[in-house]
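So, can you check?
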Amino acid sequence: MSGADILHRKYVDGLFRAHYHWLCTRLRQSLNDAAAVEDIVGETFVQLLQAPSLTAIREPRALLTTIARRLLYQRWRRGDLERQYLQQLQQAEPVHAESPEALAQLSQTLTRVERSLQRLPGKVRSTFLLSRIDGLTYPQIAAALGISLRSVSDYMTRSQALCDRHSANQSLNRPLQNKRSA
């Protein structure tokens, strides 16, 4: 570990000590779940640690609030996605009851998809979610994120490639049905 890395960790540690409780209190205004608030605040500081070495931040509370709000919005979007999926399941004609194994596999698949999305850079992930979850058009996404239409198109291509790879991996990992169960 280089000297710059040590200084960076110490700097973030100082920010943590100075602003952790303040940020928790601020987020509790938007989220009533204390454990979720602490998760978001913790992830906020993890993102600061993972960021390239920071120069002195003039307004640390503004930066912390911005990062935490993004994480909060991601959490809300994921909740919206889960609710939409459950609504669609409830409205669908029940062909047959899913086995516990199938439900567990579906849950694992959703978790893997979420992890895959988390690996995408922030604007790529935001572009994908705004398009697929919020149903925004490319011009609306460009305006919301302050990026060009070309960037929106490129980001969607990157996220679609990730989805395609994920889909291909899923079809390769799907268990073969024997003729008796088919």
Remarks:
- The first helix runs from residue 3 to 28.
